[in-house]
Amino acid sequence: MPSQIAKPASNGPLFPDYLPHYDPLEKIAAHFGPLHVHGWMPHPEKGPAEFVIVYDSKEDLRLRRFWARKNPIQFHPPGITFFAVIEQPEGVGGDTIFASTERAFMKLSPKFRSRVEGLKAVHTTAAQLSREIEDNKEKSTVRRPVTTSIHPVVTVHPVTGAKNLFVNSSYTKRIEGFDDDESEYLLKLLFNHIASGHDFSCRVRYQPGTVVLWDQRACQHSQTLDYAVRERRHAFRLTCLANVPIPSKIEEEDDGCALEEGREMLGLC
């Protein structure tokens, strides 16, 4: 078990071969940290609020169109995540592509890696909340208002010590200190780099009962919308909150490395 716990941090997705019910899965997930209650996604009618229902069909427009880390806008963004499939489109489709943000960072040139380290980015839920209300109207559920936060563009994983890109096209809106054109250019480059990285990604195909476990501090994911609208994809997700993102580099004008508890803990000062 201890060796398996370390796998999501170092290797990406892990695939248990059984589908636990709410209670045992909730107990397993709680081992990794406080459980996250999503700001707008639905939860089971008779299940815990921490469980998120993922349900795509012609009647429900909650579709995953972008590469994402779930809710990186929080002070403590998500870490370990469980995704359990209940119903899957027949034949093919509805897969998930996972990309390693550690390997994405290492694929950048050394000079470019040096340039993006130390930068900070603004993350917000504004677009997601607006789309949730527009798409689902009376079905929409908003539990908290628009949230905005600032996190490092490059973070250090507290378990592996590896550097990871911490930007995604769903929530990251601009680079702090850059003008709009500069920010848009850099973010678009990083988004495309992650999305097109076939040599640091994998594709997961599901069947009913599949459970996928991954660490959102080390990878991003995107659903493949390649199944007919009449088909249904039904799953539930459970996510644990993780550490405050640890910056890989402290700029000279900042107050110093000693103020970053995570960097001191990892011996980076």
From TrEMBL:
The keyword NADP does not apply. The keyword Endoplasmic reticulum does not apply. Keywords: Dioxygenase, Iron, Metal-binding, Oxidoreductase. Gene3D superfamilies: Clavaminate synthase-like. Its cofactor is Fe(2+). Signal peptide: none annotated. GO terms for molecular function: 2-oxoglutarate-dependent dioxygenase activity; metal ion binding. GO terms for cellular component: cytoplasm. Residues 25-239 form the TauD/TfdA-like domain. SUPFAM superfamilies: Clavaminate synthase-like. Belongs to the TfdA dioxygenase family. PANTHER family: ALPHA-KETOGLUTARATE-DEPENDENT SULFONATE DIOXYGENASE (PTHR30468:SF1). This is TauD/TfdA-like domain-containing protein. The lineage of its organism: Eukaryota, Fungi, Dikarya, Ascomycota, Pezizomycotina.
